[in-house]
Amino acid sequence: MRLQAESVELAYDRAVIAKDLTLTIPDGKVSVLIGPNGSGKSTALRALARLLPPAKGQVILDGKSIQDTPTKEVARLLAILPQVLITPESISVEDLVWFGRHPHRTSLKVPSAADKEAVEWALTVTRTAELRHQHVDQLSGGQRQRVWIALCLAQGTDLILLDEPTTYLDVAYQLEVLDLLHQLNQEQGKTVAMVLHDFNMAAEYADHVFVMKSGELVTQGPPEDVFTCDIIRDVFGVESKVVAHPVSGKPMCIPLRAGLRAQLSVATG
Amino acid sequence: MASVGTGRAAAPGRRTGWRGIGLLIALAVLVVVALLSVAVGAKPIPIGTVLHELLHYDGSDDGVIIRSLRIPRTLLGLVVGVALGLAGALMQALTRNPLADPGLLGVNAGAAAAVVAGIGLLGITSPSSYVWLALLGAAIASVLVYVLGSRGRAAATPVRLALAGVTASSLLISLTQVLIIFDENSADSVLFWLVGGVNFASWQDIRNLLPWLVLGLIGAFAMARPLNLLALGDDMARGLGQNVERTRLIGSVLVIVLCGSAVSVAGPVAFIGLIVPHIMRRLIGSSYTVLLPLCALGGGVLVLYADIVSRYVKPPFEVPAGVVTALIGAPIFVYLARRQKVTAS
Amino acid sequence: MTSTAIIAQHVRRTPLARRYPAYLMGSLGVIAVVLSFYSLSVGATDVSMSDVFKAVIGDTTDQAAQIVVQFQLPRVLLAWLVGIALAVSGAVMQGVIRNPLAAPDVIGVTKGAGFAGMLLLLAIPGVSVAAVVPAAFAGGLAAAGLVYVLAYRRGSTPVRIALVGIAVSAAFEAGIRFLLVRNPLDVSAALIWLTGSLFGRSMSSVFEILPWVAVLVPLIVIWARKLDVLGLGDDLALGLGEPVEKTRRTLLLFAVALAAAAVAVSGTIGFVGLIAPHMARRVFGGKHMASIPAAALFGVLLMLIADMLGRGLAPPLEIPAGLITAIVGGPYFLYLLVKTGK
After folding, report:
1. Is the N end or the C end of chain C the one with fewer CB atoms within 10 Å?
2. Where is pLDDT greater, at B223 or C312?
């Protein structure tokens, strides 16, 4: 496995978010980190992406400590799409995606054929090529997110990490983005690791789920193993009924409101 | 959008006992400092004599000094401090920005520039007219800074407002500097309009300032409850039935009145509006019903204290108190700027 | 929308400047050169253009040409160098701090340099202006260093740099006022130096600032793309392989050195570092590869115009250039901001 956190302790100033956390991202699969607010899932992802140096322990990428690897080299192996994105004013889609080639370019080099190819490919795969001259701030939520993903793809990495890529999007755009990531994993073999807020989306798209609570990894595994009433109750504090998705067969957790919980306990005895 | 911590939320009613005591302590400190201000100076006068002269004026040398120099100076320092302390508290409440201060946000600079322009370009000489000029200047500066800081769509975050304030201030201060240079005033008046102080106080100044101050005081204290509501956020305040726009408008007018009048008689004394509310908030929390009076008293104490210290900077010469407030205030400002917790960039 | 329609819309929307930046910048350069020649000929005594040409070529037999070389040429050259230094410094700071209101005047450099210069001027009365230059330069660097150190808490954020910069500026301003108060006899002279002007500068001033501009500005232009990447936010910039903290520190150091050099030779001339980058971005767009050279050109134009207005408005009285930039620059800046709503 190429990317893993080994017994890391993560903290912001004095506040310790996670202690002795070990996470191994499975290669070639779609992994999702879920958990309630404050569980440390975003913090863990940022540590994996070397954005947050661990106070203790280390993050290993391809056998080397990620903090000891030059950041440009890391950027050629791993792409991260953070949660907070600043769109420069009046920038075209194509110009924004070109930023993805930054790790491959030095200050004095002109864009190479490989650069151009990578950008074209990124635009094509995300179906944003026809938007290339439009200004990013004029696109819809889903289109804009696809453009940011195209930027990450232009980096040409096998590992892509995304911090809550769907959180502020309408449901149609959420599916658009997640379908794209799924396709990238299936067709291009990319390893995708992301933090998602919606545990049912996680169940639908993930090959491997990491469940976190209060800075600890509560459990991990395929959705079928992880999404149980007990775990949902333990981690998210809600009673739920877990059923199979009527079309995909994946687990679906349906949280139960007050009145229904009584009915459920009567029904299950 | 950035969020900034402004201290503990207002907790009405809970610690009334402490607050009453706090106010009394502040009042006591003020009295002590005021007495010191009358006693200390090029000719130190013993406190006993001071008290004696205050009660029965007997025309002695000391009595004359006290009556014509020390008391006006002390009173003016007190009054200016009250005005600026209140203005600072109001500004911080209205902008929800703990780094707001009439000096930093250019309001004082605007007032000073307007008066200097009036004197230099229009030849206005009667000090009672200065106030009107100062009010105009303060108003223009406030609008300028608000526009610069809001920039259309985005709300004014502390950084944006601070940068806007600095930009506006430096423009206005440059203008003031130039007008002063070309008018070839004495060094004293140069410093007065750039630095601010109460060392030239006269009874006339106090008479000019008093009506405005009383107006400002009454208005400010009436604003206490609306400001408490405003601190919850515009939407929340509206939801609780408050007219947010009117509150802001009245508050801004009060700030302009308080600052403009203070600057017209004492020049742009710096940092009072920044430091005093911060200290008071640390001591008694953010409920404006108590905070406002304490800021008023605290402002008075600080200006008097600075004025007393200023008498030791270059004895026996007079040094404007504004220099001392700047030297005290600047490091505190640096400390506050470092501490600023901003959650988004 | 068909792709040709989209491209057409893109072309229509993109102002001329962005499609042909080189031509427009070239034109600006030509205007600057023409203004320079004009400025060389205007002064306490008007000099004809032919004398100016002679002086530039090096033919100094004529007295008029000598006047040009000795008095006017340093001023014009200084206008170029100071304009470039302040504008590029401002452009870099605005890019690093991610705020269009950031400028050397605001982040401590100017006031630190002013304080140090004044300290020397007042501590050693009668010291030559030449000695003040290195003192002011050191003061500017020290102030900026102080800002960086104070703003650093496990890394510096643009917001903290800006706020601490304002605070440190205020502190040095307080120091300046304190110095003024303790030495009231020299107040006018000190204020004039503080206001900043190109009056009475000789070629030595030109040579003092030249190396900084000649070395740092090309370096900054080469690093233009790094500034673009920083603008995407710290996280994404790191993710794209840019060592954010190091790059930010280095760029700020360059910007500070340029600003300190400018203040050291010409006093505190405000607003050039604020306005020139703004104008550049409005006309040429946000990509630093274009906006930095453009800012430099606008800086030159601003300085030339300010200097000429200062000399020409009320002769023989000379209004300091720093004053012109303040009076003209301030309201113009406000107009820019209100107009674009940005």
Report:
1. N
2. B223
Assign B11 a pLDDT band (cuts: 50, 70, 90). Answer: very low
Q: Determine contact: C231 vs chain B, CB below 8 A.
A: no
Q: Residue A146: is its pLDDT beyond 60?
A: yes
Q: How many domains does chain B have?
A: 1
Exposure b/e, A185-206, CB count within 10 A at least 16 = b: beeeebbbbbbbebbbbbbbbb
The tally of domains found in chain C comes to 1
By the 10 Å C-beta count (0-12 exposed, 13-18 middle, 19+ buried), B338 is classed as middle
pLDDT of residue C11: 54
Question: Does the residue C14 lie in any domain?
Answer: no
Torsion, Cα C16 C20 C23 C26, to 10 degrees, reads 90
Contacts of A134 in chain C (CB under 8 A): 6, 10
Name A209's bridge partners: A32, A221
Tens of pLDDT, residues C194-231: 778 887 788 888 998 999 999 999 999 999 999 999 99
**Domain with A144 in it:** 3-268
Contacts B333 to C, Cβ<8 Å: 167, 170-171
Of the candidates B2, B178, B340, the beta carbon closest to that of C323 is on B178
Structure tokens at B48: 């006993």
Quote the minimal CA–CA distance from A254 to chain C in Å: 35
Q: What local confidence, expressed as pLDDT, does residue A64 receive?
A: 92
Question: Does the CB of C162 have a partner CB in chain B at under 8 Å?
Answer: yes
User: What's the pLDDT band for A85 if we cut at 50, 70, 90?
Assistant: confident
Q: Which residues of C touch A102 (CB under 8 A)?
A: 225, 229, 240-242
Cis peptide bond prior to B331, omega within 30° of 0: no
User: Per the CB < 8 Å rule, is B338 touching C160?
Assistant: yes
Using a CB-CB cut-off of 8 Å, the residues of chain B touching C337 are 147-148, 151
C 209-248 → A contacts, CB under 8 A: 222-223, 225-226, 228-229, 231-233, 235-236, 238-243
Indicate which CATH number applies to the domain containing A256. 3.40.50.300
Has residue B68 been placed in a domain? no
Query: Mutate which of C12, C225, C235, C284 to test chain A, going by most A C-beta atoms within 10 A?
Result: C235
pLDDT-based confidence at residue C239 (cuts at 50, 70, 90): very high
pLDDT band at residue B1 under the 50/70/90 scheme: very low
- Greatest CA span in chain C, whole angstroms? 74
Q: What whole-number distance in Å separates Cα of residue A91 and Cα of residue A87?
A: 8
pLDDT at B9: 45
Tell me, what's the ipTM?
0.84
**C4 within domain boundaries:** no
Yes or no: say if C201 and C67 are a contact pair by the CB < 8 Å rule.
no
Residue whose C-alpha is closest to residue C195's, from C318, C42, C97: C318
Is there a domain that residue C66 lies in?
yes
Q: How many domains does chain A have?
A: 1
Task: For residue B163, name the pLDDT band (cuts at 50, 70, 90).
Answer: confident
Which CATH number does the domain housing residue B158 bear? Answer: 1.10.3470.10
Q: Is residue C9 part of a domain?
A: no
